[in-house]
């Protein structure tokens, strides 16, 4: 299964695991793939702590770090991260705050216990720069990936100067072409069925179009991959690897409360929706009373990114911490793709990796049997 891109990175298996959990990063990298830590929710100090732990546990394997610098966002141009956060928090209308707080209260979601009001959401260049600087001090971190836009030229240059690769997610063809023109080393092409921020075009349409549009740049296929048959399909379209996010959410190493795991296990592939209600940009997540409430005509419209993210940050952390309390799951933030319909048990990352590879070779054999020549 090793591709040219794997060889360039020095890994065995072209399976990339996007995750916010350090244990998943370590387990996937140790199983031959590459774990990529999503850093958007970490302060500088928190990221440092996570990377210290990863460096200590990952052995000789490598990993990546993922940032989120949108192409356009409120407060763009402010270079002081603290000032930016103050400005954004102050810009949230009271009507929106009241609506969000009432939704949580009506569903019995307990208040956040500490007085600590730190909001760690790095949806800007100023905040991401600090995270990139930290990641680049780590020899085992071999790639930086950016979500939601082409990374700024200075960051591309900085990552290249450090001898590492930089890529970015693209949910539309024109975004992939912009990434290529900006000198990125690879594209993560995510179709609409994927979890988190996702565009409108489905993977089976978008992947081959992207492969052709950015050739010879390597493309990693994302969105809707949960088993080895889907990996086989993606590889047959000319991608150099696959990038999975939802699959790890219920792995035994992922950090999740039992009630959240249960929501993922109960859901079918029809239970997700693309909604702006948590971050301000369309992201795929489990449909519930929170996502529906923000859609109604008589309720406030979601704010643009990153204001909606700051507004909903309290909802995100409270619904995760108190996942099993009251009707919390009815308003919980549960981002996931349509493959959620296949997430029916808790497996270790190593078992998931083994299963993906076995299913891939079975699919390969099946195809070969159709036309042995
Ligand atoms: C819970 C969750 C959070 C995500 N957060 C991010 C993120 O912060 N940065 C990013 O680049 N992608 C993020 N994504 C998207 C993943 O990187 C990946 O492209 C996507 O999950 C692939 O589709 P799949 O969910 O069908 O595997 C997230 C996905 C999920 C499920």
**Which cofactors or ions or other ligands sit in this model?**
flavin mononucleotide
| First-last Cα distance | 20 Å
Overall strand count = 11
- CATH C-level class is Alpha Beta
Rg of Cα set: 20 Å
What are the defining features of this structure?
373 residues; alpha/beta; TIM Barrel; 8-stranded parallel beta barrel; 3-stranded antiparallel sheet; globular; binds flavin mononucleotide
Helix-strand layout with pairing:
Elements: H1 4-9, E1 15-19, H2 22-30, E2 34-38, H3 44-57, E3 63-68, H4 81-90, H5 94-106, H6 125-135, E4 141-147, H7 153-161, E5 165-170, H8 173-181, E6 186-190, E7 196-197, H9 203-214, E8 219-222, H10 228-236, E9 241-244, H11 258-266, E10 272-275, E11 283-286, H12 289-293, H13 307-321, H14 349-370
Parallel strand pairs: 1-2, 1-9, 2-3, 3-4, 4-5, 5-6, 6-8, 8-9
Antiparallel strand pairs: 7-11, 10-11
Bound molecules: flavin mononucleotide.
Describe the protein.
This protein is an alpha/beta fold. It has one domain (4-368): TIM Barrel, CATH 3.20.20.70. It contains 14 helices and eleven strands. The strands form two sheets. It has an eight-stranded parallel β-barrel with strand order 1-2-3-4-5-6-8-9, surrounded by six helices. It has a three-stranded antiparallel β-sheet with strand order 7-11-10, with no helix packed on it. Helix 3 (44-57) runs parallel beside helix 6. It is globular, with a radius of gyration of 20 Å. The two termini are 20 Å apart. The site of flavin mononucleotide (FMN) has 25 residues, from strand 3 and strand 9.
């Amino acid at each position: 299964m090793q591709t040219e891109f794997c060889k360039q990175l020095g890994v065995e298996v072209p399976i990339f695991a996007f995750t916010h959990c350090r244990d998943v990063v370590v387990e996937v990298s140790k199983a031959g793939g590459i774990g990529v830590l999503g850093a958007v929710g970490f302060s500088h100090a928190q990221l440092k702590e996570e990377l210290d732990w990863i460096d200590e546990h990952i052995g000789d394997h490598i990993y990546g770090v993922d940032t989120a610098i949108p192409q356009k966002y409120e407060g763009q141009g402010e270079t002081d991260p603290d000032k930016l956060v103050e400005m954004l928090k102050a810009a949230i209308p009271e009507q929106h705050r009241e609506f969000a707080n009432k939704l949580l209260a009506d569903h019995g979601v307990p208040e956040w216990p500490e007085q600590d009001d730190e909001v760690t959401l790095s949806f800007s260049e100023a905040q991401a720069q600090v995270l990139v600087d930290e990641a680049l001090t780590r020899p085992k971190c071999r790639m930086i990936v950016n979500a939601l836009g082409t990374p700024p030229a200075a960051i591309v240059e900085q990552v290249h100067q450090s001898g590492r690769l930089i890529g970015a997610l693209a949910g539309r063809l024109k975004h992939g072409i912009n990434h290529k023109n900006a000198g990125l080393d690879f594209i993560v092409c995510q179709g609409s069925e994927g979890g988190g921020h996702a565009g409108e075009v489905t993977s089976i349409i978008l992947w081959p179009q992207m492969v052709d549009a950015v050739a010879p740049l390597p493309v990693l296929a994302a969105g809707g991959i949960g088993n080895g048959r889907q990996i086989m399909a993606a590889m047959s379209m000319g991608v150099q690897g696959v990038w999975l996010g939802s699959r790890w959410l219920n792995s035994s190493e992922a950090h999740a409360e039992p009630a959240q795991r249960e929501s993922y296990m109960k859901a079918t592939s029809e239970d997700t929706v693309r909604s702006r209600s948590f971050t301000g940009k369309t992201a795929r997540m489990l449909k519930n009373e929170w996502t529906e409430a923000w859609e109604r005509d008589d309720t406030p419209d979601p704010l643009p990114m990153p204001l909606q993210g700051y507004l909903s940050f309290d909802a995100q952390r409270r619904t995760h911490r108190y996942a099993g309390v009251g009707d919390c799951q009815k308003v919980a933030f549960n981002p996931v793709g349509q493959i959620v319909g296949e997430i029916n048990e808790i497996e270790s990352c190593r078992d998931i990796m083994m299963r993906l590879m076995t299913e891939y070779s079975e699919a390969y054999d099946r195809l070969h049997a159709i036309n042995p020549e």
